[in-house]
Amino acid sequence: MSRPSLYARVLDLYIAATRLGPLVWLTVALALGIAIMQGWLLPELRLQRIALANQVEAMQRARHTAPAASIAQVSTNAQRVGDFESTLGDRNHQEELIRAMFANAKQSDLVLAEGEYASAMDKSGLYETLEISLPVHGSYRQVRAYCERTLSSLPFAALDALQFKREGVAAATGEARIQWTLYLHATHPVELNPRERP
To answer: Model confidence over 23-55: pLDDT tens digits?
Structure first.
C-alpha cells in the first residue's frame, strides 16, 4: 500500500472544503481572527493595567505625603464690625477733616467754594455721617486728582456723586459738584449684643 502524495492530500482538503459551505468557513475565519487578536492584545492590555495600577499607587502615596491645605478663617460678624469701627473718622475733629479736604483741593489746583454740610446719626447708633456737597471749578483732570487724594487721605470718606458741567466742548475747565459722606465714630456709640450685630 503506497502513501498518498502531498498533491492528493491537498486535493482531499479542497474537496472537503467545498462540501462544508461558506458559513462554516466564515466561522473558522472568525475563530482564527479572535485567537490572533487575543494573542496580540492581551499582553498590551496587561501592560496598560500594570501602568494604571502604578499611577494610582503613586497618587495615593502623594496624597498621604502632601501637606494639608490651611483653611482660611472666616471672620465673624463681631470681627467685621470691629474692622469697620476701626476705620471710622474722629467726630471731634470734623473741622480738621474739612480743612484737609480743602487742602487736597488746593494741591490739585482746584478752586473750591464753600459747601453744604449735613450731619446725621445712623439708625443702628454705631456711627455718624457727615454729608458734604462741594462746588468746585477746574478741569476734569484736576477734579479727578482731588477725588483720588481725598479718598487716599481719608479712608472713611465715600464719594457719593460727581456732576461735571462745561460751557462747551472746547472749554478746558468747568463747574463740578462733588458729594461726599464721611463716616465718623458716634458721640455715644450704642453697645450691641453680639447677637444683634449685623
So the answer is: 766 777 787 787 777 777 777 778 888 888 888
List Cβ neighbours of 98 (8 Å cut-off, separation of 6 or more): 117, 132
In a domain, 197, yes or no: no
d(CA 135, CA 172): 17
Please name the residues in contact with 143: beta carbons below 8 A apart, sequence gap of 6 or more.
108, 110, 136, 162, 164, 176, 178
pTM passes above 0.85: no
CATH number, domain with residue 86: 3.30.70.60
Same domain as 170, residue 148: yes
Question: Is residue 81 a contact partner of residue 190, using CB atoms and an 8 Å limit?
Answer: no
Give, rounded to a whole angstrom, the gap between the first and last alpha carbons of the chain: 114
Distance, in Å, from the CA atom of 112 to the CA atom of 106, rounded to the nearest integer, reads: 8
